[in-house]
Amino acid sequence: AVVSTQSTGTLEKQENSMFVANCVLLDMIHGIRTYFNHRFVVELLYKPELPQLKTLGDAKNAFSEVYGAEHLLRLMTCIGKLITPKEFDDSGYHVLQLHLQRFLDFLEINKDKYLSVENYIAVP
């Protein structure tokens, strides 16, 4: 089969675009996880939850491995003050907003799975 160079070029642009979008998404996930772990105690725990920290032991450095979607949603409520349009070019900021919105839409669709009371245990 003969393939025109125009369709090959278009395909390469699409593959490059998908690669860049995946890299942006992976960077975003890494950044959210890092921020979640670094600012967890200060911004994401409510006062009555603070005693739970004593029970975590070695997990204190990996809050994102212990705490779930409820705390991640708390991060989403304060992410606007962390990320400003000045830090990105217009397309980068738009891509970030798009990924964050898709994530929030995903949580909304799957709220029964990720935000269920059954996912949590009482900690003395």
Describe this entry's structure for a reader.
This protein is mainly α. Helices cover 63% and strands 0% of the residues. The chain has helices spanning 5-44, 63-66, 69-78, 90-109, 111-114. The longest helix has 40 residues, at 5-44. The N and C termini lie far apart (68 Å). Mean pLDDT is 77; it is low at 1-5.
Task: Give the helix/strand layout.
Blueprint: H1 5-44, H2 63-66, H3 69-78, H4 90-109, H5 111-114
Cα-based radius of gyration, to the nearest Å: 19 Å
C-alpha termini separation: 68 Å
User: Strand percentage, roughly?
Assistant: under 5%
Which overall shape is indicated by the principal axes computed on the Cα atoms?
elongated
Low-confidence stretches: 1-5
Structural class: mainly alpha
Short description:
The protein is mainly α and 124 residues long. It is built from 5 helices and no strands.
Task: Label this structure with key terms.
124 residues, mainly alpha, 5 helices
